[in-house]
Amino acid sequence: MLALKDECMHPATDKPYIKTSVGGKDNSTEGIQDGITHGFVVEFESEEYRDYYVAKDPAHLAFVKSIEEVVEKAQVVDFAPGVF
Q1: Residue 4 in contact with residue 17, Cβ under 8 Å?
Q2: For residue 12, how many other CB atoms are within 10 A of its CB?
Q3: What does the angle CA 7 – CA 21 – CA 49 come to, to the nearest 5 degrees?
């Protein structure tokens, strides 16, 4: 997952377009993870880049397909920092 930061290339520039990508294994003691074991935050420069990543980026789509058999549950939350 984290390698996608360098593997996802924007079609117009042929350069990586993911601003930041971090993640790790859950270590919360709260007990409200509801089956989620890992978390990732991927930051994009714009909603346009995010939308391309989700729907069209070949590297991302191949990654999603490659984990279909091993991921039991996924949850996605999109947000704009500071917008509440």
Answers
A1: no
A2: 8
A3: 65
Q: Please give the single-letter amino acid code of residue 11.
A: P
d(CA 49, CA 28): 31
Strand ranges in the chain using DSSP code E only, listed in sequence order: 18-25, 38-44
Q: pLDDT digit string (tens) for 30-68?
A: 999 999 999 999 999 999 999 999 999 999 999 999 999
* Tokens representing residue 80 in the block: 């704009």
Q: Where are the alpha helices (DSSP H) in the chain?
A: 4-7, 47-55, 58-67
- How many angstroms separate the CA atoms of 67 and 28, rounded? 24
